[in-house]
């Protein structure tokens, strides 16, 4: 029989509550800071007017948006002190001061409710300690979130109008310029460095060499940091140095995440907006050179950063510790190695593999798939199609009907409680059970839809792979095009073995050594073992082929 140890829960001193106040302003201008000071004075008086309240601390965030929790240090400090039992009650002006994000607001309230710490929202007259349901709070926090979206949308519209009219005034100056009365003016010392960067790159010097030269001369960046290759590249890509101002290079989505504008929104070009540092001819020539460098090094563009310098960058991981492999140039060969192993062989024992062996293993794998397409890929495609079209005996419909039934029950409970026919305690208990059951049903629906989506995606990817294999052109050498099309990741388990994770869901193990060609009559003797998952069955069949040898075209 199991032993149960009872742990005493935390109880506050009801005679003297330690009360914390939270304040926030969204900008750091003088008017907002004065508002912040007024809020602090208000809460000092507000808390002192309650005899059984004791001011614990006033937490405040200056110039911080309420849409995200990540950068709000004061709020995170408040939550940490609550977990450390330093606070018994939290007071704030309104829901929008705590958070303009519905999810964050409800998460914070639930987190503090588990600690038996209520929150008082003054404006809405809500005390979460006496709250029967989260429904009202979620409605009000959603309104606050919508208000934030509306305000942000109005601001974006006003900025775009200034873009379109050519009246936009920059708020920050790129390297080589300063701002005077809202206008860009040339900073002669920095401008000399910008022209030098364009000149050196035009003559064939790489961005990394330029950065090293500037660091060697102790030239500081705009913010006093060290020069890096991506810093130099950003300068070379910046069309503002031609004197033209390209507006709306980036944009924020509805979740306030910033993205580079790849054509999603209209961009505005204001010609001769400010004095130029390089002419258009030099700038265009540099863009051609940058494009050639990108193609030469297999760099994936789109984020304006050299995130994937080479074809294998970011795609090789260690099967032992999960670390991304790093490219190394060694005498007469190129290798990829686990970064933890490079730091210390004790941290990870997986040694480096050569790029040539990875390329050869990929060729072997693709040639096997070409050979076994009729026995492996075609049955896999048929099974995936059946799986993608199945509804698991009406499970999805049953879950949807359950959610609708729970909603009707909740409405009935509310009507009974409002008419006085149902006790409030019973209403709260049964409503909570319905909410929990509805949540679980919705999670199952999400998982079911996700599985169906995965099956559909796997079906399309297998069909693309099969179409390529049906062309019957075996690889006699490495070809980057099919690698980019079909391989999602390579997991290196040892210097002699790697697992290729394909975009269609297959995980195929390959030896990293060249072997003899496969006897084409071998497959006819393979016993077709049955698996519940089509992908697993295909991987089993492939493993039998792999154990017999490799196909080198």
Tags for this model:
553 residues; alpha/beta; Rossmann fold; Hect, E3 ligase catalytic domain fold; five-stranded mixed β-sheet; four-stranded mixed β-sheet; 18 strands; 47% helix; 15% strand; extended; disordered C terminus
Summarize the structure.
This protein is an alpha/beta fold and 553 residues long. It contains 16 helices and 18 strands. Mean pLDDT is 75; it is low at 6-10, 150-154, 302-307, 514-532 and 548-553.
Computed structural class? alpha/beta
The end-to-end distance, rounded to whole angstroms, is 65 Å
Strand order of the largest sheet: 2-1-3-4-5
- Determine Rg (CA atoms, Å): 31 Å
Q: What portion of residues is helical?
A: 40-55%
Q: Which residues form runs of ≥5 with pLDDT under 50?
A: 6-10, 150-154, 302-307, 514-532, 548-553
Q: What is the typical, i.e. mean, pLDDT? A: 75
Annotation, overall tally of beta strands: 18
The total count of helices amounts to 16
**What is the 3D shape?**
extended
Tally of structural domains: 3
Largest sheet: 5 strands, mixed
Strand content: 5-15%
Topology (SSEs and partners):
Elements: E1 17-24, H1 30-48, E2 53-61, H2 73-83, E3 89-92, H3 95-98, H4 102-114, E4 119-121, E5 126-127, H5 135-165, E6 177-180, E7 183-186, H6 188-202, H7 207-216, H8 229-237, E8 245-247, E9 250-252, E10 258-260, E11 268-270, H9 280-297, E12 316-318, E13 325-330, E14 333-338, H10 339-343, E15 353-354, H11 355-371, H12 373-389, H13 395-418, H14 424-469, H15 480-486, E16 487-494, E17 497-502, E18 507-511, H16 534-548
Helix pairs in contact: 7-8, 11-12, 12-14, 12-16, 13-14
């Amino acid at each position: 029989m199991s032993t149960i140890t009872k742990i005493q829960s935390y109880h506050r001193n009801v005679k003297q509550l330690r009360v914390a106040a939270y304040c926030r302003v969204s900008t750091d201008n003088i008017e907002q800071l004065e508002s912040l000071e007024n809020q602090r004075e208000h809460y000092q008086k507000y808390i002192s007017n309650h005899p059984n309240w004791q001011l614990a601390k006033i937490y405040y965030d200056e110039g911080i948006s309420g849409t995200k929790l990540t950068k709000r240090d004061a709020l995170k400090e408040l939550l940490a002190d609550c977990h450390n039992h330093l606070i018994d009650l939290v007071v704030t002006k309104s829901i929008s001061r705590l958070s303009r994000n519905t999810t964050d607001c409800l998460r914070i309230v639930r987190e503090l409710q588990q600690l038996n710490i209520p929150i008082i929202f003054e404006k809405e007259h809500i005390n979460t300690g006496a709250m029967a349901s989260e429904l009202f709070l979620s409605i009000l926090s959603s309104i606050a979130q919508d208000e934030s979206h509306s305000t942000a949308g109005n601001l974006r519209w006003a900025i775009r109008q200034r873009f379109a009219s050519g009246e936009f005034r920059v708020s920050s100056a790129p390297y080589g310029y300063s701002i005077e009365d809202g206008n860009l003016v040339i900073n002669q010392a920095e401008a000399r460095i910008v022209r030098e960067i364009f000149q050196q790159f035009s003559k064939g010097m790489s961005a990394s060499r330029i950065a090293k030269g500037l660091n060697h001369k102790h030239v500081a960046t705009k913010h006093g940091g060290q020069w890096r290759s991506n810093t130099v590249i950003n300068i070379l890509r910046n069309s503002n140095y031609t004197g033209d101002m390209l507006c709306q290079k980036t944009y924020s989505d509805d979740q306030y995440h910033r993205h580079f504008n790849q054509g999603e929104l209209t961009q505005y070009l204001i010609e001769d907006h400010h004095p130029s540092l390089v002419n258009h001819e030099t700038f265009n020539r540099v863009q051609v050179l940058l494009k050639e460098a990108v193609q030469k090094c297999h760099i994936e563009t789109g984020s304006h950063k050299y995130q994937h310098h080479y074809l294998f960058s970011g795609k090789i991981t260690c099967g032992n510790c999960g670390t991304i492999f790093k490219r190394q140039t060694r005498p007469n060969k190129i290798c990829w190695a686990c970064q933890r192993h490079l730091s210390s062989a004790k941290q990870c024992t997986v040694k480096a593999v050569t790029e040539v062996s990875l390329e050869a293993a990929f060729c072997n794998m693709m040639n096997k798939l070409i050979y076994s397409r009729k026995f492996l890929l075609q049955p896999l495609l048929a099974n995936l199609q059946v799986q993608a079209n199945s509804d698991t005996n009406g499970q999805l419909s049953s879950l949807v009907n359950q959610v609708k039934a729970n909603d009707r029950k909740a409405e009935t409970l509310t009507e009974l409680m409002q008419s006085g026919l149902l006790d409030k305690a019973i209403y709260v208990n049964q409503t909570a059970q319905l909410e929990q059951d509805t949540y679980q049903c919705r999670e199952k629906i999400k998982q079911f839809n996700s599985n169906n989506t995965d099956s559909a995606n796997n079906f399309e990817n297998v069909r693309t792979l099969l179409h390529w294999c049906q062309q019957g052109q075996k690889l006699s050498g490495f070809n980057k095009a099919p690698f980019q099309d079909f391989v999602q990741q390579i997991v290196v388990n040892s210097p002699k073995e790697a697992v290729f994770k394909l975009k269609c869901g297959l995980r195929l193990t390959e030896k990293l050594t060249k072997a003899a060609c496969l006897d084409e009559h071998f497959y006819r003797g393979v016993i077709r073992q049955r698996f519940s998952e089509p992908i697993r069955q295909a991987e089993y069949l492939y493993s039998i082929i792999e154990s017999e040898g490799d196909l080198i075209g």
